[in-house]
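Workshop exercise sheet. Pairs work together: one partner reads the sequence aloud, the other fills in the structure field after running the prediction. Swap roles for the next sheet.
Pair: D.N. / O.F.
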Amino acid sequence: MYSQINYEGSVLKQYETLSKQLDALLDGETNVIANLSNASALLNQFLDNINWVGFYLMDEGELVLGPFQGLPACVRIAIGRGVCGTAVAERKTMLIDDVHAFPGHIACDAASNSEIVIPLVKNDEVIGVLDIDSPNKARFTLEDQQGLELFVQTLLKFI
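Structure field:
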């Protein structure tokens, strides 16, 4: 399976180690749902001060809820709507310090105050997003963004 990670060191080094653990965890598995499930569980274990982590996947022109850790969530999100839909429309990571100040924010969990969403782009097509919420404002840093983008690049080899 996989071994415990020593999470000491810089934030980026920690994410590099986490991405290596993801690679080892998913090695040899081809089922997308299983791999996304384990990826969300691994992030939930690694990240502090979060209340939701998971995936939305493109399905017939909209985002549909995929594997996640946390409270029940919105099932469908239109492209261009909310933080997740905007990440797809703009094809870029959205790092939001205060979701309540984001125009059109979709409040799936009233406890969420900040959010980061990374598009999953494969073969130049957005196939979904990684969405992480926190009850803390300004929880996510640029180092988190870089580390999570690395995590997503590793994950894309398995989905």
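Discussion prompt: The longest strand covers residues 125-134. What would you look at next?
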